Amino acid sequence: MEYTASTGLKIAAPFLYRAYLSCHALQARKPQLLKALDCSEAALRDPGYQLDDIAIARLCAAARDELNCTDIHAEIGGKMVPQGFSDRGFTAFFQPSFGEALLDLVAEQRLGGEEPVAKILSLSSGDRLVWNPGEATEPDLVHILFSLVHQCGELLAAGRFKTVKAAHFAHRRPDGFRGFPSADSGRDPIPCHFNRPSTYLEYHHMAMTMPIQRHNPAIITAVRKQETSFARARFERQNIAKLTYEYLLYLLDKSGLSLDAAARTFGMAERTLRRKLVSEGMSYRQLLEQVRRDTCHLYFLEGTRNLSEISAKLGYSELSAFTRAYTSWYGHPPSQDTGNAIALAA
Which end of the chain is more exposed for a tag (fewer CB within 10 A), N or C? Predict the structure, then answer.
């Protein structure tokens, strides 16, 4: 599988993977979606793989045909709302302010390589979250991302303040566009304007400075520490252990945790992946345990989930398996620490 430096607006495969899973959750068939993408599901699970933004247009076209629906962006974006620490952008819910949360959410989608795809422009009439890339971008990508940002913003606000006033797009109105949120949400769609000089979400005055109720600096610190565990030059794979750590982190509550699945994702034989990891001083099992332990730490800092939910989020098929693992890490069962906002041993 080919890895290239970003020459235009690139999409990190895990973003497209989540959009692909969203389309499937809406009842679009996987083979038809993968055929449109001309890409395997294994490739979409690879954190080092990139696709051009035209891929999201092909995915949306296939989903429209599958679902016999002309407007699907709001539904796709809604099902991409992060639900846990294995979803990119979940740490946004623990940032200090609404504006910082939105920027973190967008940055974690890893669109456009190293360049940020959005910035906040403060005006007296209200702040704007402005789509930043200089070149033209597939409208499907913008609509899905804005739908994701809008729906996450509503969760962050939790009814305490008003968020988006209107959406503005530089491209023409897509055929069949009905706005967002979706018609099934029970909420009125926000005003959307097309053929504008720039693309941005317009927010109510002072929204960006509003504090986040779930702000948790301990989680932010722990996440930054965890990120150093797989820090690497983006889209290069010289350190297979760090790449595998990142791969496992974003699949803990999904599929693909086996060594064989990882090897297929990285385009190598199982024994080759095992040998490469051993040469870097790690085994696949050790990496999986480390990812689970690090992420378990975050869930205990969050302090809102029961043990069964945490167990499932960490990829354990049974609570008893999680209990045994936890006891081997810390010398006592997880029930002893449930509900405590503690810093687990590093």
Answer: C
Q: How far does Cα 294 stand from its chain's mean position?
A: 18
- Peptide bond before 181: cis, by omega within 30 degrees of 0? yes
For residue 269, the Cα-to-chain-centroid distance in whole angstroms is 28
Is residue 339's pLDDT more than 80? no
Which two tokens mark 336?
A: 């002893």
Q: What is the DSSP letter of 185?
A: G
What share of residues in the chain are helix, strand, coil (percent, to 5)?
Answer: 50, 10, 45
How are beta strands 128-131 and 118-121 bridged, if at all? antiparallel
pLDDT value at residue 345: 35
Give residue 340's pLDDT band: very low, low, confident or very high (50, 70, 90). Answer: low
The span from the CA of 3 to the CA of 174, in Å, is 32
92 and 213 in contact (C-beta within 8 Å)?
no
* Rounded mean pLDDT, 98-112: 94
List the structure tokens of 72: 């699907």
The stretch 201-228 carries a mean pLDDT of 93
Give the SS3 label for residue 111. strand
CA distance 147 to 235: 27
Rounded to 10 degrees, what is the CA torsion of 71, 73, 79, 84? 180
